[in-house]
């Protein structure tokens, strides 16, 4: 999807349904679309979902949007640095606890194409799958959705049927799955879990709301299966390295996104290797 032309409503408070408003952070990029969307849930007291980057402009906008209202919780879907770093400074301003995903810092020598992990994240309460955070007139229930990261949570707003999907499901692009923490089998299982639900609408951290959630999720699962079939076909022709697969598989895609695509191809190959479908020798992959 092409990023829409500027200006974007960075810093504005946008009330999108009675219990939900959002504020767009000024961190647009090929990986974040127009930026991270921080959601404010509630009326008299609030949950702040994915506070975003710890940038002064964004923190000022969030403080203005909150106004004099109490913040009951600052909630994070996962700990990439475009999602959780503002949690601590916002907690210092509001006195609110940090609630949500478990802390996770990946130490790896491999080059990373997604946002690196937030080393500052320190939750006061970690939500397990099915646990809830409540406020005046709202209930947010955690839905564990590992895959993009192993600690990823979505939050279901029970009063309206909305689901806050973080980076697990986005309307503008498929989620990057970066090994070793990102796991394609987990990602597919988490998609199947969401597909079995009846959520009315998805609010992702990047890009537009998803108004036909099950249709999109079904398409995403089909897309990933098609990528796997594509890998099988290409390796059946000849053994290849990932660097040789990506230009063929992602022809027409912005080349700036090829490193991220390569990581998702690696995630597919690792999953296929576990199932005994492919083998590798050094950087060369072969069909079994």
From TrEMBL:
Superkingdom classification of source: Bacteria
InterPro entries linked: LACTB2_WH (IPR041516), Metallo-B-lactamas (IPR001279), RibonucZ/Hydroxyglut_hydro (IPR036866), Sec-metab_biosynth-thioest (IPR050662), WH-like_DNA-bd_sf (IPR036388)
Gene3D superfamilies, per the entry: Ribonuclease Z/Hydroxyacylglutathione hydrolase-like (3.60.15.10), Winged helix-like DNA-binding domain superfamily/Winged helix DNA-binding domain (1.10.10.10)
SUPFAM superfamilies, per database record: Metallo-hydrolase/oxidoreductase
SMART domains reported in the protein's UniProt record: Lactamase_B
Sequence ranges assigned to domain Metallo-beta-lactamase in this UniProt record: 35-206
PANTHER family: ENDORIBONUCLEASE LACTB2 (PTHR23131:SF0)
Protein name in the entry: Beta-lactamase
Upper classification of the organism: Bacteria, Pseudomonadati, Pseudomonadota, Alphaproteobacteria, Sphingomonadales
């Amino acid at each position: 999807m092409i990023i829409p032309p500027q200006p974007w409503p960075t810093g504005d408070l946008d009330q999108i349904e009675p219990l939900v408003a959002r504020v767009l952070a000024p961190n647009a990029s090929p990986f974040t679309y127009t930026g991270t969307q921080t959601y404010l849930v509630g009326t008299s007291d609030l949950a702040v979902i994915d506070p975003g980057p710890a940038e002064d402009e964004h923190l000022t906008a969030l403080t203005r949007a909150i106004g004099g209202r109490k913040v009951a919780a600052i909630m994070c879907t996962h700990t990439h640095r475009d999602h959780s770093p503002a949690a601590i400074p916002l907690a210092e301003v509001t006195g609110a606890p940090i609630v949500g995903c478990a802390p996770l810092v990946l130490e790896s020598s491999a080059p990373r194409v997604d946002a690196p992990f937030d080393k500052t994240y320190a939750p006061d309460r970690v939500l397990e799958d099915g646990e809830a955070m409540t406020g005046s007139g709202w209930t947010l229930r955690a839905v564990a959705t590992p895959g993009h990261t192993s600690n990823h949570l979505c939050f279901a707003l029970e009063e309206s049927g909305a689901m806050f999907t973080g980076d697990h499901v986005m309307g503008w692009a498929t989620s990057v799955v970066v090994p070793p923490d990102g796991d394609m089998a987990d990602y597919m299982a988490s998609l199947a879990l969401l597909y079995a639900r009846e959520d009315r609408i998805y609010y992702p951290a990047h890009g537009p709301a998803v108004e036909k959630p099950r249709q999109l999720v079904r398409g995403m699962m089909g897309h990933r299966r098609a990528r796997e079939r594509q890998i099988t076909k290409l390796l059946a022709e000849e053994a290849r390295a990932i660097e040789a697969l990506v230009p063929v598989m992602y022809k027409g895609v912005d080349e700036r996104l090829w490193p991220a695509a390569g990581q998702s191809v690696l995630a597919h190959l690792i999953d296929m290797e576990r199932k005994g479908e492919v083998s590798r020798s050094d950087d060369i992959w072969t069909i079994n």
